[in-house]
Amino acid sequence: MGAKARFNELLGLDLHPKIIDIGANPISYPIYYWMHQAGDIDIVGFEPAPVPFAQLQETKGPRETYLPLAVGDGRRHTLHLCFAPGMSSIFEPDPAVLDLFPRGSLWGSVLETMEVDTVRLDDVPETEGVDMISIDIQGAELMALENAAERLKTTLLIHCEVEFVPIYKGQPLFSEVEIFLRSQGFMLHTFQEMNTRCITPLVLNDDPTAGFNQHFWANAVFIRDLSKANQLSDQEILKLAMLLHDLYQSVDASMRLLSVYDTRHGTALAPTYLNNLRQHYNSALPA
């Protein structure tokens, strides 16, 4: 579709959603990278590991705050440091499950353990007024969300890593995360980066991260239930429409939200949005 059309530009707005990033290690670009580059968001990130936290502190801009804290249930936990750093977790890896997948047992082998203190998101003042939560903490996502009841009341969108097989002992899977968030007024919107793995002894194309059909992990996107969008405030409607457009190009969902806003105020944001999109991309979008 060419260059991205920013929501703020399309409608002449100046919205700045607040994003909480739990697990902000800068080893890869976050989902909100382009919104960050455009200066359209405020970020509060959590990264307990000293080296990546120092990197974030060195490169942060005026709209970024980073805290060297581990988010969880406010208790002390044992952190299992794995051969593959990205697999380190407060949950113990399950060798029997990991052995199903190429190099799983190696990557999930525990090199050492250490005790870590966690904080509840509700107890961190910097997280007040959150609009979006991005969370990737290796199986502990549900624990963190269950201890963020107050913050979830203002949250419009959650970008959450989920697993479909229990690679950690006792970890919650996607189904449990979805059930909890549905009880909090969220609906599943989409999956990003749906990852599959090959089941041993086969290895697909000598790539241990490739697979046929076995779903392994993904980023699940949850949003406020659109059937109840009329219960959202004006700012919540606009910010959710912005996040859906700028992060996922969910034009239909953004249109729906703008239509709710227009019905409430007698404005014409929805048709303006669609017309400006057509002009920006110089292509026909569905009416």
Detailed description of the structure:
Helix 3 links the parallel strand 2 and strand 3 (64-67). The protein contains 11 helices and 10 strands. The protein folds into 2 domains: 1-14 and 235-282, no CATH class; 18-155 and 157-231, Rossmann fold, CATH 3.40.50. The protein has 287 residues and is an alpha/beta fold. The strands form 2 sheets. A 7-stranded mixed sheet has the order 3-2-1-7-8-10-9.
Short description:
32% of the residues lie in helices and 23% in strands. It has eleven helices and ten strands. It has a seven-stranded mixed sheet. Strands 4-6-5 form a three-stranded mixed sheet, with no helix packed on it.
What is the topology?
Elements: H1 7-11, E1 18-22, H2 33-37, E2 42-46, H3 50-59, E3 64-67, E4 70-71, E5 76-82, H4 95-98, H5 104-107, E6 110-119, E7 132-135, H6 141-146, H7 149-152, E8 157-163, H8 174-183, E9 186-197, E10 214-224, H9 234-248, H10 251-265, H11 269-281
Parallel strand pairs: 1-2, 1-7, 2-3, 4-6, 7-8
Antiparallel strand pairs: 5-6, 8-10, 9-10
Helix pairs in contact: 9-10, 10-11
Segments where pLDDT lies below 50 for 5+ residues?
none
Mean pLDDT: 95
Largest sheet: 7 strands, mixed
The Cα radius of gyration reads: 20 Å
> What class, by secondary structure content?
alpha/beta
Shape-level CATH architecture of the largest domain: 3-Layer(aba) Sandwich
Tell the overall outline. globular
What keywords describe this structure?
seven-stranded mixed β-sheet, single chain, Rossmann fold, alpha/beta, 32% helix
